[in-house]
Amino acid sequence: MQNAIVKALIKEEQIRLYFIDNSQLLRDIYALNQELPKPLKLLLGKTISAMSILSGTLKGNQRMSLQVTLSNTRHKIFAEAEANGNVRGYLNEELLRSSNIEEKSMQDLIGPSGMIRVIKGSEMNQFTSITDMPNQHITDDIANYFVQSDQTPTYLYSDIQLDKGGSLLSSHALYAQLLPGAPPQLLSEVKMIVKANPDIFSKLNAEEASDSEEALTQLFGDAKIIGHSSSQFFCGCSKEMFYGMLYSLSEEEIKRSIERKEDIEAFCHICGKTYTFEQKEMQQLF
C-alpha cells in the first residue's frame, strides 16, 4: 500500500514501530526536481521520507517544520509535515546552485557542523529545538533530535533506491521509538534486525493488514497493528500567498514594471508553480 503508514507495537508492546512505502510521494517530489544531481536527490529524498513517516506521530492540527542547515550555512533543506499526512519540502537556491555536487556524498554535503531546527506543535502551542548533526546523516540525525530534545530513544531508517540514471525505483521508511519504561537494548535489537534483513520492506508491505502483522511477528517476535494513516505530497500554495512578496517591492520597482509593461512572476519553490501578476494587478497595487 503506497503512501500508507502502518502503525504497530512490537516487543511486548514496548516499542512503537511505523513503516511506509512512500515511493509515490517521492515520485511526486522528484517530478518537480528532475534536474537534481543524484546526491541532492538522496539528500532531499531522505528528508522528505523521514518527514512522511513522522507525520504519523502528529495529532490533531499539529505540524512539524524542519530546517537543516549544512556546514556551509548558505545551504539549507526545508521540510514540513502535518498531522493529516501532508508533506512538502525543498532545497534552497544556494544549495541548488552549488558546484561539484556529483562528486560528493551525503556526509560531505552535510559536513561536520550541520544543524537541525525543528518547530513542532499547533498554532497555539509550539516549541522550537535546535540540535547538531554528529552523524552527518539525515535520518540518523533527525532520530538524534528526539534523543537530545525529547530524551526519547528513536530509530529512523530510510531506504531509497535509484537506478543508474537517477530515476526512483522505490522508497521506504521505518520509525521505531521506545515507550516509557522499555529497556534501551530493545531498540538496538530492532536496528540489528533491520540491518540483517535488506529485503525487510518487501516482507512488511503486504496488501492485507494480517499479512503485515504476521511478517512483523516473524521479524520481531511479536506484533500488534494498531492503525494506519496516509502521507502524501501537498503544497497548498496560492496566488494570494504571494501578494506579500509584491508589497515588499519598492514603489520604484512596481512603477518600472508598469512603464515597461512587464508582468511580475512569483515562483513556488515547493511545487514549482509560477503565479503571474499582470499589469492590471500591478496598477491597482501601485
From TrEMBL:
Keyword flag Iron: no
Keyword annotations: Chaperone, Cytoplasm, Disulfide bond, Redox-active center, Zinc
Keyword Disulfide bond: yes
Record-linked InterPro entries: Heat_shock_Hsp33, Heat_shock_Hsp33_C, Heat_shock_Hsp33_N
Signal peptide: none
Top-rank taxon, per record: Bacteria
Name recorded for this polypeptide: Hsp33 family molecular chaperone HslO
Organism: Planococcus notacanthi
Source taxonomy: Bacteria, Bacillati, Bacillota, Bacilli, Bacillales
